[in-house]
Design brief:
- The complex is a heterodimer of chains A (about 250) and B (about 170).
- Chain A has about 250 residues and is mainly α.
- Helices cover about 65% and strands about 0% of the residues of chain A.
- Chain A contains ten helices and no strands.
- Chain A starts with a helix and ends in a 6-residue tail after the last helix.
- Chain B has two domains: about 5-90, Fe-S cluster assembly (FSCA) (GMP Synthetase, Chain A, domain 3); about 105-160, no CATH class.
- Chain B is built from five helices and eight strands; from the N terminus they run βααββαβαβαβββ.
- The longest helix of chain B has 15 residues, at about 60-70.
- The chains are: A mainly alpha (about 250), B alpha/beta (about 170).
- Chain B: It comes from Aequorivita xiaoshiensis.
Chain lengths: ~250, ~170
């Protein structure tokens, strides 16, 4: 399989898995407004995923469709980062995970808009408008919870401390990514690592939270080596297509 | 590559006008600005449709409705989804904006003002019920991804605000 296909997966799988995680909250959000917001964000991400997968399916040919890519791969073939597969432990985790991803996502597709690959640039130009709303939403909530009550501050801090270890992986490049970057089509994610930590640290400080200082980071998702949560996500995500192959609705 | 202004064959306009956005039924797809091209080539109507938001579920419905509308007048249709250039709220026609307001959805403000109101700093969104700008943001996301939820502090009615997308 070619590098561009793999590259598309490293971007699109993040959105698919995060959309699935957020979708789990449909009808279970802490308030009606946040419930609706979270599922709206999920829908945006799913829409973006479809655009990437439609493009990826074209590259594969053999009558493959976006659905084959979304539903019929095995765990090791999903290239999403570990951050997005982490569970909805409590609302602070949902918001923390979202914010840590949104800042990265925004910086990535902001640069992807300039890709000489027309399809990638078009998807990015469409997506950036949506992601800027996501980032504003999650950033506002980090501030509200961090600078809220003693309890909300404690929970927000707990989430950031727990999720911090997954942030470094966002800037790690797989072999396929390196190749696509070399061709001038892809974005070198390591190029905005410093900018990312600066922006995140500033907001956390504003939210009266402590910026974690742990030296230990974990990675693997982008190479297909996932945390124990991934299998459960896929079991739910793939259930219909696995049980009733080729079903439509 | 499509340009900013859509390429629509005049003869097809009457049929296009009959297809509306399923989520804002007072708005035709033409007024919404999602039809980027509609031309007849060798007896087949070719339509290029652009989504408002990437995941907008209305797009599949609009696509089906367009097919049905043209088939009803005996024409074959081919609908293609295009992403570039990305849809902007600037493409909603003035007539469309007025209809939207009458329907109860506040029209999008300019990009800068949109940011101000969504960050909760300023009272600028006009209540479509009583016209007061004494309104406040309830949630940045409303009944659909393209709208935010507001409440009027004068007539106390909640309402949707169509977010600016540029």
């Amino acid at each position: 399989m070619n590098n561009l296909y793999k590259y598309l997966l490293t971007i699109a799988d993040n959105s698919l898995i995060l959309a699935q995680r957020l979708g789990e909250l449909c009808g279970h959000g802490p308030s009606l407004e946040t419930d609706i917001a979270i599922t709206n964000i999920s829908l945006d991400l799913l829409g973006q995923t479809r655009s990437y997968y439609q493009y990826a399916a074209k590259l594969v040919g053999e009558n493959k469709t976006e659905d084959d890519i979304a539903f019929l791969r095995i765990e090791r073939d999903y290239k999403n980062c570990l951050l997005v597969e982490q569970p909805n432990t409590h609302f602070g985790f949902v918001i923390g995970r979202q914010y840590l991803f949104d800042v990265y996502h925004y910086m990535l597709i902001e640069k992807l808009q300039n890709s000489p690959d027309e399809n990638l640039a078009a998807i990015a130009k469409k997506g950036i408008k949506e992601v800027s709303y996501h980032k504003r939403f999650s950033g506002d909530w980090v501030k509200r919870l961090g600078d809220g009550t003693e309890e909300s501050n404690k929970k927000m801090q707990e989430a950031i401390d727990d999720l911090w270890r997954y942030t470094n992986e966002l800037f790690y490049l797989t072999e396929a990514e390196k190749e696509v970057v070399k061709e001038g089509i892809g974005v070198d994610v390591s190029s905005f690592k410093e900018e990312y930590y600066k922006e995140v640290s500033e907001l956390l400080t504003e939210a009266t939270l402590t910026v974690p200082e742990n030296k230990y980071f974990t990675k693997g998702g982008k190479e297909g080596v996932h945390t124990e949560h991934m299998g459960y996500i896929l079991a739910e995500l793939q259930y219909m297509q696995r049980t009733y192959p080729n079903m439509n609705w | 590559m499509l340009t900013e202004s859509p390429n629509i064959d005049k003869d097809l306009i009457p049929v296009l006008k009959t297809v509306s956005d399923p989520e804002i039924p007072v708005l035709s797809v033409l007024a919404l600005g999602v039809i980027r091209e509609a031309i007849e080539v060798n007896g087949v109507v070719k339509i290029k449709l652009t989504p408002t938001y990437s995941g907008c579920p209305a797009m599949d419905v609009i696509s089906d409705d367009l097919k049905k509308a043209f088939e009803d007048v005996g024409k074959k249709v081919d609908v293609e989804l295009v992403l570039s250039p990305a849809w902007s709220t600037d493409w909603i026609s003035e007539e469309g904006l007025q209809k939207m307001e009458e329907y109860g959805i506040a029209r999008p403000l300019s990009e800068t003002h949109d940011k101000d109101v969504l960050l909760g700093n300023k009272k600028m969104v006009k209540c479509p019920q009583c016209g007061s700008t004494n309104t406040h943001l309830v949630s940045q996301f409303g009944s659909t991804a393209c709208k935010a939820l507001f409440k009027c502090d004068d007539c106390h009615e909640p309402f949707d605000y169509f977010k600016c997308l540029k």
